Each structure stands twice: as structure tokens, then as C-alpha cells.
Amino acid sequence: MDRETYLRKLHYRAHHRGTREADAIVGGFFDHYHSRWSDSDFAWFEALLEEQDVDIMGWAMGSIDVPADWQGPMMRLLVRLDYIDLPVGLGRTD
Fold it and tell me: Would you say 25 and 57 are in contact if contact means Cβ atoms under 8 Å apart?
């Protein structure tokens, strides 16, 4: 699969998780950071996509402890939540 197709596939999977909250976390993370990722970072992200949304959201928001095998630089970026851009009406006032 060529790179453009691969990125479109990951973008779709990241943004179509099942809830708006998961879409914002996983999709926002992908959009904000993927241009800097190495092949191993992409492999980490693909594995993350297989996890349950409730776990990913809990890890990102700090309500669930991150399992040891998920800890590392990519998870540290995920939990920053500096990439979330909520639409007007979902917490934003502008």
C-alpha cells in the first residue's frame, strides 16, 4: 500500500472510533503528531487503534492507570491532550 493510502486509512480509523470523545482524542492525536512519527511510532499507533476506546480515553485523561507495556514517549504525548479541538457547543465558548 502506498504512503498516501496508508495515511488515509489510519486517519479514517482514528476519526471513526464510535464516540465524539474518542474521535477527538485518537483523531486529534493522529492529526497533530503523525507527520513526526517514525515507522515504530506508526506501529505503536496501529496497535493503539486495536484497544478499547474506554481504555484509551481513560489513559489519556488519567482516570485509568496506563499499563506498563503502553508507557513511553508516545503515551506521554497522548496524555498531554494538547491536540484536542472541540467543536463549538462541546466545551468551547468561542
Answer: yes
